[in-house]
Each structure stands twice: as structure tokens, then as C-alpha cells.
Design goal:
Elements: H1 3-14, E1 22-23, H2 40-55, E2 61-65, H3 73-76, H4 83-88, H5 90-93, H6 113-125, E3 131-135, E4 140-141, H7 154-168, E5 176-180, H8 182-190, E6 198-200, H9 208-220
Parallel strand pairs: 2-3, 2-5, 5-6
Antiparallel strand pairs: 1-4
């Protein structure tokens, strides 16, 4: 494993400074995890490492989202990726075997709609390893229920900057950063040295067609 990737994984596993209503996929366990629960965070770290390694020398674009979802990265360990992609699009995600972590994954892997839309576009592009996915706040913020999502607080967005700097150091080439949604766009405008090279509508809440159009315009040039 490349040293910058190991550094990033260590930072992620340590978790946020204020973990109030935040789940850390790479350190914490979930009651829906497979057994033994204590091994599942390491599986998610291994998945993320394989995903990043596969793009270390090829990535040219970052699609920057808001935060992990309770059905996506929380179980896969990879931003904008659910267990469905680990099963059905594994060859697009990494070049090494990937691991499932939920207890029902063998019969009913978790799915996440935004992940399905994004990976559908990555497959359509023919160059899935040119794009790497990340989040403004890399840990999963939730509401009153752990099976919910919430927008990261301003302090959490600021904390995400250090993780993003460590993330960028993992790649050989400078990355063109595209914001997927308003949270990412605002964060890139506020972070020291942050730069948003383009905005794409988030696929959630009826934004699927606009996401596809933006992706094809800014990434594949096929709009």
C-alpha cells in the first residue's frame, strides 16, 4: 500500500474530533454488521484501500459529495458506493477482491440510489478509473436515528478539509475537483486553497437527469 493511502486510512480510522451523531465506518461497528462485528471496520478499510490503489496513477477527476449515507459508504467503506456495487460492479470499483460487511449481504446487499446513478455513469463513460469519489465530510452524520442521514454541520465541513488534503496526496496527478451538490460547492469555496472546477447537481431528490447531464458535460464531454 502506498504511504499516502496508509496515512489517509489512519486519519479516517481515528475519526472526527466531535463524534456526536457520527458513525465512523472504518472504526465503529453497526448492529447490522456481519459477525464477528469487530472485524467489519477493517474490511471497510481494506475496501477503501483497494479502491484508492486502483486509481492512484489514473485518476484525473474527483466527484466531491456531501457525506456518506447510511446505506452506502457506511457498509462498503467507499464513498458513493453501496454493497450492490461491490457485488455487481466489482471490476469497476477495484482491481482486487472486495468484501461485504452487512450480515444480510449474501442475500440482500444494501443498495443506495445515488450510488447506482453515479456508478451507472462511470460504467457508461468507459473510464471508471479516471474518476475518484470523495465526500466533504468523510464520516457518516445521522439524525435521531442511525438509519438516517443529515447534512454535516459547518464545523464538520471545516474538519473535512484535513481529510481532503490527505486524500489528494494519494494520487500521482493533480485532480480536477467537481462539486456534486451545494454542500461540496460551498466547502470548496471556503476551504484554504480550495477550488471548485465545476458544479454537478446531486442525483438525490429528483436530480438524476441533471447529474447525468452535468457528468457527461464536465467529465466525458459527451453531453
Amino acid at each position: 500500500m502506498a504511504e499516502p493511502i496508509a496515512t489517509l486510512l489512519d486519519l479516517l480510522a481515528q475519526g472526527p474530533a466531535d463524534p456526536q451523531r457520527v458513525f465512523n465506518p472504518w472504526r465503529d461497528t453497526d448492529e447490522r454488521d456481519a459477525t464477528p462485528h469487530r472485524r467489519m471496520p477493517q474490511r471497510r478499510l481494506d475496501n477503501l484501500a483497494a479502491y484508492l490503489e486502483a486509481r492512484r496513477t489514473s485518476a484525473r477527476y474527483v466527484l466531491m459529495g456531501e457525506a456518506p449515507s447510511h446505506r452506502g459508504c457506511r457498509f462498503s467503506g467507499i464513498p458513493f458506493c453501496s454493497e450492490h456495487e461491490l457485488v455487481h460492479k466489482a471490476d469497476l470499483v477495484a482491481r482486487k477482491p472486495l468484501q461485504l460487511t452487512s450480515r444480510d449481504a449474501a442475500t440482500k446487499p444494501f443498495t443506495e440510489r445515488s450510488a447506482a446513478v453515479i456508478w451507472g455513469e462511470l460504467e457508461h463513460s468507459g473510464s471508471p478509473f479516471d474518476v475518484v469519489l470523495w465526500n466533504t465530510y468523510p464520516w457518516h452524520p445521522y439524525g435521531d436515528d442511525v438509519t438516517s442521514n443529515r447534512k454535516p454541520r459547518p464545523a464538520e465541513v471545516r474538519e473535512g478539509h484535513a481529510a481532503f488534503e490527505a486524500f489528494q496526496a494519494c494520487f500521482t496527478h493533480p485532480l480536477r475537483v467537481l462539486a456534486v451538490g451545494k454542500v461540496a460547492e460551498l466547502a470548496l469555496g471556503q476551504w484554504p486553497g480550495g477550488h471548485c472546477a465545476g458544479y454537478i447537481r446531486h442525483p438525490a431528490h429528483g436530480g438524476e437527469s441533471l447529474f447525468r447531464a452535468g457528468f457527461r458535460e464536465l467529465v466525458t464531454g459527451s453531453a
